[in-house]
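Saturday, quiet lab. Running sequence design on the structure tokens for the scaffold JK sent over.
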């Protein structure tokens, strides 16, 4: 009973948070429309105040219904562990909204770095890309976001891509034939760069990874 009660209390707290967020949206005087934490930009809104009020009502209703759905936990009809996948989905949605993935080619990145000097890097073969987020902080996690690597491969019309750990802030996406790449050489190169140029707290891994579109899996390259 104690375990079910704790699960129910956690469930109710989450429901109350939704309601509080709804009340905040409803009473907000900001000129910016609120989003849904769904990693999508809000469409242009003319009546921002009316939109935020309607969104606030939606969040409040959702919070109330969410709380009511939790009552079966008290009778043991549902396992308290159901909260884990729900919280996981919420955290992923929030992370994707606040730290949206950003992929740039090496050419774009170098040109951004050289804007002040007005030096322009000529286009180089687009086989190397940098995956991070818009803040460039802890962006390596983006490689685990659903659909990010798959969407990249589909856009580039390739069967898979090598993922090279750079640091906890970014990873490199390398387009190459997996049957011709010397994985041992890449692994040695990653180790040397990690131990010579990356601080210990920011090292991600010494191994290259490979994402396969057909199986939708990310594994250590062999």
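Result came back. Writing it out in full:
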């Amino acid at each position: 009973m104690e375990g079910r009660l704790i699960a129910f209390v956690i469930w109710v707290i989450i429901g109350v948070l939704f309601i509080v967020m709804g009340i905040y949206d409803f009473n907000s005087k900001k000129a910016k429309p609120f989003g849904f934490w769904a990693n999508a930009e809000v469409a242009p809104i003319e009546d921002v105040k009316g939109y935020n009020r309607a969104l606030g009502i939606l969040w409040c209703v959702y919070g109330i219904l969410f709380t009511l759905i939790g009552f079966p936990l008290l009778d043991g009809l549902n396992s308290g562990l159901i909260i884990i996948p729900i919280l996981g989905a919420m955290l992923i949605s929030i992370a994707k909204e606040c730290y949206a993935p950003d992929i740039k080619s090496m050419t774009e990145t170098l040109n951004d770095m050289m804007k002040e000097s007005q030096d322009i890097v000529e286009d180089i073969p687009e086989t190397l890309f940098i995956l991070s987020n818009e803040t460039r902080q802890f962006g390596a996690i983006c490689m685990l976001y659903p659909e990010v690597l798959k969407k990249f491969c589909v856009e580039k019309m390739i069967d898979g891509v090598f993922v090279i750990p750079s640091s906890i802030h970014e990873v490199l996406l390398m387009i190459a034939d997996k049957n011709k790449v010397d994985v041992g050489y890449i692994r040695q190169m990653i180790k040397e760069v990690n131990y010579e140029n990356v601080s210990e707290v920011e090292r991600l891994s010494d191994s290259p990874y490979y994402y396969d579109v057909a199986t939708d899996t990310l594994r250590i390259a062999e």
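Notes for JK: The helical segments are 2-27, 48-69, 83-98, 106-113, 148-156, 183-197. The beta strands are 101-105, 128-133, 160-167, 170-174, 209-212, 217-220. Ask whether to fix the surface positions before the next round.
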